[in-house]
Write a structure and sequence with these properties.
Layout: H1 2-26, E1 31-32, H2 39-55, E2 63-68, E3 72-77, E4 84-85, E5 96-101, E6 104-109, E7 115-117, E8 120-122, E9 124-128, E10 136-138, E11 141-148, E12 151-158, H3 162-165, E13 180-187, E14 193-197, E15 203-207, E16 210-216, E17 219-224, E18 231-236, E19 250-255, E20 263-267
Parallel strand pairs: 3-4
Antiparallel strand pairs: 1-13, 2-12, 3-5, 5-6, 6-9, 7-8, 10-11, 11-12, 13-16, 13-20, 14-15, 16-17, 18-19
């Protein structure tokens, strides 16, 4: 019996060593990825695009309000006797009505008021047909209808914002090649979803293309991805959220693997603040539990100090 026992123990030890050996071999596919020759130029182009998305006339930083509609008539204007008060003195005290009827929204102007859509003006128009939302303008203001599950609202932008005009970017960690990493893509089964909650508390089962694996200091971590048009979208929490980066996590896009490959690049230098880090009028998605990593990632954008955000 003793020899049988020792034989079993040797077999278990041999299998354990073999598994560790195999794991150490397969994980050589992860770690730091070589940088392209023009990496700094590519990153500068990415950063320019990031600034454009923040500061253009309907960029995230120019959001000036979010207003949820009730079924039926919703009066609006700059006065205090309307259902929806826009923060803009050039708008009349009573400017008209947003009329929500069974998932569609019609805008009716008050007497003497006209709104602009594209190159023309109007006094009455269906601005949301349940699928397409029209961008409507009045002087420096621009708005459109958004739908969030069972909620229908107005997303308002104000193009007249000197603070945004002077914005030069959020504080960020220095560009670090060590956070330009190889990642392995593990496809999801067809129709698979993950649960994502937003800042409104709405929980949505969202399609996922799969997960990605990457390595930090020899340890392997996994992130579930969301589908994007051209890239995968990742919502990530890490230990820097406790001290230097936005408390609710950050976002990053990465490329799908090329055809015939299981590998891509995750460049944490491109991790960025979600809109709710610097603007109250957003409906940001938050990291799922499995994407809250027990590791610090000191790369990408830091907290949006000096901006109104969601604490």
């Amino acid at each position: 019996m003793k020899w049988v026992y020792y034989g079993m123990m040797y077999r278990i030890l041999f299998l354990s060593i073999a598994i560790l050996f195999l794991c150490s071999c397969t994980r050589k596919d992860l770690g730091q990825a070589p940088l392209p020759d023009n990496y700094e130029e590519q990153f500068a182009d990415w950063q320019e695009g990031r600034m454009e998305s923040l500061t253009n006339p309907t960029g995230w930083m120019r959001l000036a309000g979010m207003y949820w509609l009730e079924e039926g008539e919703n009066s609006f204007g700059s006065g205090d006797r309307v259902d929806i008060q826009f923060p803009e003195s050039t708008l009349p005290e009573y400017a008209g009505e947003f009329i929500l009827t069974k998932g569609k929204v019609r805008l009716q102007a008050a007497d003497g008021v006209e709104f602009q859509y594209e190159d023309g003006t109007f006094r009455q128009k269906e601005i949301y047909d349940g699928e397409e939302a029209l961008n409507i303008e009045y002087w420096s203001l621009e708005w459109l209808i958004i739908e969030r599950e069972d909620l229908m609202g107005i997303r308002l932008y104000n193009k007249d914002n000197p603070k945004v005009d002077a914005f030069t970017g959020f504080d960020r960690y220095p560009l670090d090649p060590e956070w330009h990493l190889n990642a392995k893509f593990e496809p999801a089964t067809e129709g698979e979803t993950i649960s994502i909650v937003n800042v409104l508390g709405q929980l949505v089962d969202t399609p996922t293309p799969g997960s990605i694996e990457f390595s930090v200091d020899g340890d392997v971590y996994t992130l579930d991805a969301l589908e994007g048009e051209d890239q995968m979208f990742l919502i990530v929490g890490d230990l820097t959220n406790q001290t230097e980066t936005y408390q609710a996590g950050r976002y990053i896009y990465i490329d799908y693997p090329e055809e015939g490959s299981d590998y891509t690049i995750i460049d944490f230098n491109k991790m960025y603040n979600p809109p709710c880090a610097y603007n109250l009028f957003t409906t940001c998605q938050l990291p799922p539990i499995q994407n809250r990593l027990d590791v610090a990632i000191p790369a990408g954008e830091k907290r949006a100090e000096g901006w109104e955000g969601l604490e």
